[in-house]
Specification:
heterodimer, A: mainly alpha, 13 helices, B: 6-stranded mixed beta sheet, 4-stranded antiparallel beta sheet, 38% helix, 22% strand, membrane (chain A)
């Protein structure tokens, strides 16, 4: 049961009565902290002096608040989103990716004899963005970020997600007119991203991305352009193999995530 | 006022905030820190040493940016080696690198807020913590200016603001006073003393006067090894009028270094 202090006690407390012993003052104070009713009663029994003090404090506080700059509220605006997820250094690379995809789409329209160029370069589209997502020379604040808990994997995955969120719609738009299967564009794109991350734990993401781009260009793009037909690996029936490979690579990449905890000498 | 978290009142089970034993750290192929033993508790510690003594490499290793090549390093009792999970330690860390890069189009508030977000602070606390750390370094009037419009000293202060935004238990500042004018340096020393009452602050500098004024402890390194550790007062007693320097502390600094070099030369002769 809670016993509220009597009105007489509250009056004496408000008046700062020296006759009130210290334990009683503590008891009243502790009670006041938790009891709104008694606080209201205390407000009714304040003396003129204490009211004047409160008035003075309120005026000077108001004056100081007016003099200092207003605190910024929570601004969950587009700029915060852009700053956090799409660090400025990624934008030029994403713009370049978009430009290349646009050129490929245009080439497909103008040059009808060839297999779809968009389909051929789709696996490589996210790689430039992923390569610069977490690289010390690509990110001016890398040393600051490297000492934060979000460094390494979190930052890499966040930025990779930002790159994919941009590249996948861009691919879908560029590939819409070519008649190629969307799955055959997006699955290799995801598989190559996971492969770049996986190899990246061994040799650094940038080298992994460059290597994958070189191998794909030499082994698939060049022969299929020379022969003017869709390569076997991108034929319609290979979609299931790509799905399997994507799943496998993502799982393997997740097992190797510890490699990104610290900025390795590869990066 | 900030609320005191349960973590801060919990009993510590580690004797030292920073504890290095026979620490080796590579800078490129070269072992810049080679067999360093260091134990630092709460307080402001000044890290002194000639150019190329391994100060910056040591700071990087303590900030968990580079992995030690050998030896043992523990921060707040957590071992920091290649395999351990660094996230809990990194949340309690503040670090200002010697040359810190930044995004020129960010405002001071956005930059400090971005760093607070990367330090995984609770989302609701970020705006207030950002404002507080900007106020503490005296950049309130410039809080919404873009970083590219700031002067060198202001940038440095923005860097200090991002380092202290999460109320770090270990604060590592590499050359923080470069570009600060004399008045700002006095304010900065005040800030250091304030933070050093309940955190471990390590300030790397080559200005002996800063160390004497703001630090409770001096750590002197040379060629990747600990040469001397003691209070600024004892440092000042080490030298006499015969040693190079304009103040007692500077003379003490050059006396210790000279003695160390002479001993190293003797050891080399004895080996030869």
């Amino acid at each position: 049961m809670i016993t509220h202090p009597t009105l007489a006690q509250i009056d004496r407390y408000a008046a700062g009565d020296p006759g009130l012993d210290e334990p009683s003052v503590w008891a009243i104070e502790v009670h006041l902290e938790g009891c709104a009713d008694c606080r209201a009663r205390l407000a009714g029994s304040t003396t003129m002096d204490s009211r004047a003090v409160i008035e003075r404090v309120a005026t000077s506080l108001d004056r100081e608040i007016a003099a200092t700059p207003a605190p910024a509220g929570r601004s969950w605006s587009w700029s915060v989103l852009r700053h956090r997820w799409l660090v400025g250094t990624l934008l030029p690379w994403l713009a370049m990716t978009a430009a290349v995809l646009a050129c490929a789409a245009l080439l497909g329209v103008l040059w009808t004899g060839l297999p779809s160029v968009v389909l051929l370069i789709a696996p490589l589209a996210p790689l430039p963005g992923v390569a610069v997502a977490w690289h010390r020379r690509a990110d001016p604040a890398w040393e600051l970020i490297a000492a934060t808990p979000a460094a390494g994997l979190t930052t890499l995955l966040r930025r990779t997600a930002a790159v994919l969120a941009f590249v996948i719609p861009a691919l879908a738009v560029a590939g819409a007119g070519t008649g190629a299967s969307l799955a055959l564009m997006l699955l290799p794109c995801l598989a190559f991203t996971a492969a770049a991350l996986l190899l990246g734990t061994l040799v650094g993401v940038r080298r992994a991305a460059i290597g994958l781009i070189a191998i794909w260009t030499l082994a698939v793009i060049a022969p299929s352009l020379a022969a003017a037909r869709v390569p076997v690996v991108l034929a319609a029936e290979s979609a299931r193999s790509w799905a399997l490979a994507t799943a496998l690579l993502i799982i393997m990449a997740l097992f190797r995530v510890n490699g990104f905890r610290r900025l390795s000498h590869h990066d | 006022m900030r609320a005191v978290s349960a973590v801060e009142t919990a009993a510590t089970t580690h004797p030292w905030a920073i504890h290095a034993e026979d620490l080796q750290v590579r800078a490129g192929r070269h072992l810049a820190v080679n067999g360093l033993d260091l134990a630092l508790a709460t307080g402001v510690h000044g890290l002194l040493g000639p150019n190329g003594a391994g100060k910056t490499t040591l700071m990087r290793a303590l900030a968990t940016v580079v992995a030690p090549a050998g030896g043992r390093l523990a921060l707040l009792g957590h071992p920091v080696d290649g395999r351990s999970d660094l996230r809990p330690v990194r949340r309690t860390l503040g670090y200002l690198p010697q040359h810190f890069g930044f995004y020129p189009r960010f405002t001071v508030r956005e930059f400090v807020g971005y760093m607070a977000w990367l330090k995984e602070m609770p989302k609701a606390d970020i705006p207030a913590a950002v404002q507080r750390s900007i106020d503490r370094v005296g950049l309130t009037a410039k809080a919404d200016a873009r970083l590219k419009t700031l002067s060198g000293g202001m940038l440095r202060r923005a860097g200090i603001a991002q380092a202290i935004v999460n109320d770090p238990r270990i604060l590592l500042l590499d050359e923080p006073t470069v570009g600060l004018d004399p008045e700002q340096r006095l304010d900065f020393r005040e800030l250091l003393r304030d933070i050093g009452t309940d955190s471990c602050v390590l300030v790397s500098t080559h200005l002996v006067e800063d160390v004497v004024a703001a630090c409770t402890d001096v750590v002197l390194v040379n060629e990747g090894r600990l040469v001397w550790q003691g209070t600024p007062e004892v440092l000042a007693e080490q030298g006499d009028q015969g040693h190079a320097g304009d103040s007692p502390a500077e003379r003490g600094y050059s006396a210790i270094l000279r003695r160390h070099r002479a001993e190293a030369a003797q050891r080399k002769e004895a080996l030869a």
